[in-house]
Specification:
Structural class: alpha/beta
Shape: globular
CATH superfamily of the largest domain: NAD(P)-binding Rossmann-like Domain
CATH topology of the largest domain: Rossmann fold
Number of domains: 2
Strand order of the largest sheet: 3-2-1-4-5-7-11
Largest sheet: 7 strands, parallel
Distance between the termini: 41 Å
CATH architecture of the largest domain: 3-Layer(aba) Sandwich
Helix content: 40-55%
Strand content: 15-25%
Mean pLDDT: 95
Order of helices and strands: EHEEHEHHEEHEEHEEHEEHEHEHH
Number of helices: 11
Low-confidence stretches: none
CATH class of the largest domain: Alpha Beta
Radius of gyration: 19 Å
Length: 319
Amino acid sequence: MERILIIGANGQIGSELVTALADKHGADNVIASDIGADNVYGAKRYTRVDVLDKDAVARLVADENITQVYQLAALLSATGEKAPLKAWTLNMDGLLNILEIARERGEAGKPLKVFWPSSIAAFGPNTPSDAPQYAIMDPTSIYGISKLAGERLCEYYHAKYGVDVRSIRYPGIISFKSPPGGGTTDYAIAIFHAALRGEVYECFLGPETTLPMIYMPDAIRATVELMEAPAEQVGIRSSYNVAGVSFNPRELAAAIAAKLPSFRIDYKPDSRQQIADSWPKSLDDARATADWGWKAAIGVDAMVTDMLANVDVGLGKAA
């Protein structure tokens, strides 16, 4: 029986991963946690914990006989640029704490499987526009730098200590259950909020800025499938490329306008444009397909239809 701890459960991925894992393993076996006291998404079991407090996390893991940890707590790209030292500390020390706990548990004969998310932000301006699994990686944001360093740490802890750590380089993730946050790809969420409020959307990226994206159900499925794959099939311990769909703001706006003809978009690129320009336009995920059978299922039209049907504009005004 798996006993699962999700750290950063009030974030975009965590909010939906809690539900998916509770459905699979039972709600009593999934503990959601975050730094705040509020159980934002109504998990059956929720506790407040700071991933930077290693001793507190280690106690929780031991007391609850945790077998899997999903370490999702992080500061994202645009938010991290406003507080780079804070971003580095949270993103790096949080991961190191979990890897160290996993090392210690493994040495005590109580193995702990770890999931940690990387990102397309780990790539940079010299990465090919269709990023292969192994590529030049020269990130330009503190978030991307921390993700690249984190990938190396994951591979190191697996090679040196045998920690069963697994990771995905997520594209931009689109979801209707949480509001747009501090990510460079979050225009693809904010745009739906504006459209459903009848507002002209002011996009912080230019119209031709093509980026790789993935719809949340596919992202969650990829995560669960990777964690369920037999260890011998997980040939990459840094982070797997996982692709969904690629599009730009103009194309997404056109898909929305096809269903909401009154929708309009304006463009006012800001500092996030420079970050986006350093990222690839698509991801080659052939290794994920070959190793553990990954394949995206949801295209742009299906995503747009589902988003327009489900976005809650009450989540707050889009950024």
